[in-house]
Design brief:
Blueprint (H helix, E strand, L loop, with lengths): L1 E4 L9 E2 L7 E2 L5 E4 L13 H25 L3 H26 L2 H6 L9 H26 L9 H18 L1 H13 L4 H4 L5 H20 L6 H24 L10 H23 L4 H31 L2 H12 L9
Helix pairs in contact: 1-2, 1-5, 1-6, 1-8, 1-11, 2-4, 2-8, 4-5, 4-6, 6-8, 8-9, 8-11, 9-10, 10-11
Length: 339
């Protein structure tokens, strides 16, 4: 329940100045507040671990795609960087998720049932299907680094499975990159829910930019061509869809430009743009390529942190819940209350 406070005391005049050529409205702008000062929408009970989880999950997914492409086109150094990057990102992602949940058994409990209507349930299953194949591909890469005399029996079998596992990991990677955007927009948090059309695309573009940046950062210049194209394409998608998202969100878009979220989103745009430009002009410059790759990864992390902070801020201010609902009523659209 929300109170709209107009200020002033009962019986005080609301208009004056009739003798000076017309009425002047004396009612101040409405101040939205909820009973007892409590938010209308309860902020998501997530810590910054979830923002890290959003970032590393995207890097893992994009790196799996990049690794499969490098494997099929004969770029072993890029394949190695991408496979190891994918596995490391997955491990960090799982650790961050489990830390936020409190104990590992809660993650395992989510696998007891499959709910197609729940993005969290679907995402858990997608991650569980993708992770083992990415792990086998990375293990095969590690096995390939062993001395020839050790590449027998199980090691040889692992080497034989590397390409197939990598391809399956690549096929299951796009849903891993996109579902986190669906997960956030499926909540009642105003800034996240109002961005439901564009947020998955922003996250996919961000994942491509970050994983491409990782490839540029770790692979030799001679093999980094696909990573460079992946990074620049992802950066363009991220920047374009983010701009479109801000235009379509309405009032909650304010939270993307204020306080900590605003600083993070500004840093994200600057780092992503600089990283993409550096990736294009530094094709033969190893040092510039490494700086560009690091900038792209940092920009992607800032995007996830900024979106997270904006969502929390929008849930704490009743204005971002009430005003959009009133606008929809005024337009004759149904108001859907989400739990």
């Amino acid at each position: 329940m929300t109170q709209v406070q107009h200020g002033g005391s009962p019986g005080s005049p609301h208009r004056s100045g009739a003798g000076r050529g017309g009425d002047q409205l004396m009612v101040p702008e409405a101040d939205f507040d909820s009973y007892y000062g409590r938010p209308i929408v309860k902020p998501a009970p997530w810590e910054h671990d979830i923002a890290v989880y959003l970032f590393t999950g995207g890097v893992a997914a994009g790196s799996s795609l990049l690794a499969a492409g490098a494997d099929l086109t004969g770029r072993p150094a890029l394949r190695r960087v991408a496979r190891f990057g994918s596995l490391a990102s997955l491990l960090v992602s799982v650790v961050a998720l489990v830390h936020d949940l409190g104990k590992p058994s809660r993650f395992l409990n989510m696998l007891r049932v499959a709910k197609p209507t729940s993005p969290m349930s679907v995402g858990t299953w997608i991650l569980s299907l993708h992770g083992p194949f990415a792990g086998v591909a990375a293990a095969a890469e590690l096995a390939a680094m062993l001395p020839i005399r050790w590449q027998r029996g199980p090691v040889r079998l692992l080497l034989a499975l590397g390409r197939s596992a990598g391809i399956v990991g690549a096929v299951t990677a796009p849903p891993v990159a996109a579902y986190t955007g669906v997960l956030l927009s499926d909540t009642a948090t105003p800034a996240w829910h109002s961005a439901y059309k564009e947020l998955p695309f922003v996250f996919c573009g961000s994942a491509a930019a970050a994983s491409g940046g990782l490839g540029i950062l770790g692979a030799p210049v001679a093999e980094a061509g696909p990573a460079r194209a992946f990074a620049v394409g992802g950066a363009l998608v991220e920047l374009a869809t983010e701009q479109r998202m801000e235009q379509s969100m309405g009032l909650p878009a304010e939270t993307l430009h204020r306080d900590r979220a605003g600083r993070l989103m500004k840093a994200s745009k600057a780092l992503t743009t600089a990283g993409a430009v550096g990736a294009l002009v530094g094709r033969r410059n190893r040092a510039l390529s490494m700086v560009s790759g690091a900038a792209l990864m940092a920009g992607s992390l800032c995007t996830r942190l900024g979106v997270y902070e904006a969502g929390i801020a929008s849930a704490k201010d009743p204005k971002y819940t009430v005003v959009p609902q009133r606008d929809r009523v005024d337009r004759g659209e149904p108001v859907r209350y989400r739990s």
